[in-house]
UniProtKB/TrEMBL annotation:
InterPro entries: Kinase-like_dom_sf. It comes from Actinoallomurus oryzae. This is Aminoglycoside phosphotransferase domain-containing protein.
Length: 376
């Protein structure tokens, strides 16, 4: 609960934030589902806004769960949350708040819900800016640590680049504002339309949209690319991990460095929880890992392994067959995807905030160390 209190305190920097009641509050938030298991802070006393925030929270649900979510949101709109969600945060005092700043930027009065992911190095507050009567206006990413600020800046740059492209089967957010406020980095994004219920299987990757994002490709030897050079010297705290990763990179480079591969763009974290279907188009958000020049097929490999393949055993390269990739090219692409993911996890596992990711990072490095450079 301390992390949530601290997050709200940073958003109301001149006010006092505490649990419980007492002095009339500038803003009161209700913990969903509880202070012991917080997932979301809903603006209390504003049922239409709270219902809108709940309806658009965590899209990665099956169709039955989405129906339940929609029904729950209807109850929240009728005032259910104010009667049943008893754990609260109270903001008291004065001074400019994040709601004041966003209202100024968006030229209309908004209130916010607050989301905060699980403890990890890249965690950051995610706000949903909503009018008091429930109209969604923007989503806001808040860079409140050095890592979070870097990721927010990376996403702003990615979206600026993507704004220069046109897509038929894909829709991405627009940047409404990117800048600093009271020691925080704000990225204000247009909301994407999503439906409450979808009957598309989450295991069916949107291959056509992935190919559209990849765009025009270039065929080049792996060893000549900036993508490959990023693995040259990773600043890892653990000397043993650094040595093992260097060995993995050396083996992969020796085995496949001369191979010519197709290179194009990827989202970097394309999974069901970062997308929705709306009127036949994929609505895709969370672009902080975007890269315009990686081996084609990485998004598809990520989607498939994140939604069922897992990382307990070495993946079968045939998982890329629906993407149109087989044989040696598929095997190399799978290895490069695992190497890129290990680089990401090992980097995010550094420092005190990285501790939750360390077992996953170590497991992935073990898998690579046992198999890399030997399967194609």
């Amino acid at each position: 609960m301390t992390a949530w209190t601290d997050a709200v305190a940073a958003l109301w920097p001149d006010a006092e934030v505490r649990s419980g009641g007492g002095t009339p509050a500038l803003r009161e938030f209700a913990f969903l589902p509880s202070a012991e298991r917080p997932r979301l802070l809903l603006p209390a006393g504003l049922p239409a806004a709270a219902a809108s925030a709940l309806r658009r929270y965590s899209h990665d649900l099956g169709a039955p769960q989405r129906v339940v979510r929609a029904l729950t949101a209807t109850g929240v709109r009728a005032g259910l949350a104010d009667r049943t969600l008893r754990h609260r945060l109270h903001v008291t005092g004065a001074g400019e708040s994040i709601e004041d700043r966003l209202s100024e930027l968006l030229s209309r009065r908004v209130v916010v819900s607050v989301g905060l992911g699980s403890a990890r190095a890249n965690r950051k507050p995610i706000l949903h800016a909503i009018t008091p009567d429930g109209e969604p206006v923007a989503f806001v990413k808040v860079g409140d640590t050095a890592t979070a600020r870097e990721l927010v800046a990376a996403e702003a740059a990615a979206l600026a680049r993507l704004a220069e492209r046109s897509f038929s089967g894909l829709r991405v957010p627009r940047v409404l504002h990117h800048g600093d406020w009271r020691g925080l980095r704000l990225l204000v994004l247009s909301p994407l339309p999503t439906g409450a219920v979808s009957f598309r299987s989450r295991r069916r990757a949107p291959v056509a949209a992935m190919r559209e994002l990849t765009g025009a490709t270039r065929r080049v030897p792996l060893a000549s690319t900036a993508f490959w050079r990023r693995f040259g010297d990773l600043p890892l705290e653990d000397t043993r991990q650094r040595e093992r990763l260097a060995e993995v990179v050396e083996r992969i480079g020796a085995a496949y460095g001369a191979d010519e591969l197709e290179f194009g763009a990827w989202h970097g974290d394309w999974a069901p929880w970062n997308m929705a279907w709306h009127r036949g188009r994929v609505q895709l958000w969370d672009w902080e890992r975007y890269d315009p020049d990686v081996p084609a097929g990485l998004d598809y490999a990520h989607y498939r392994l994140q939604t069922g393949g897992g990382y307990d055993t070495w993946p079968d390269p045939e998982l890329l067959a629906p993407y149109g990739m087989r044989g040696r090219a598929a095997a190399i692409t799978v290895e490069l995807y695992l190497l890129e993911l290990a680089r990401r996890y090992l980097g995010d596992a550094q420092g005190a905030l990285g501790e939750p990711l360390r077992p996953r990072a170590a497991k992935l490095l073990d898998l690579l160390h046992s198999n890399a450079g030997r399967t194609a």
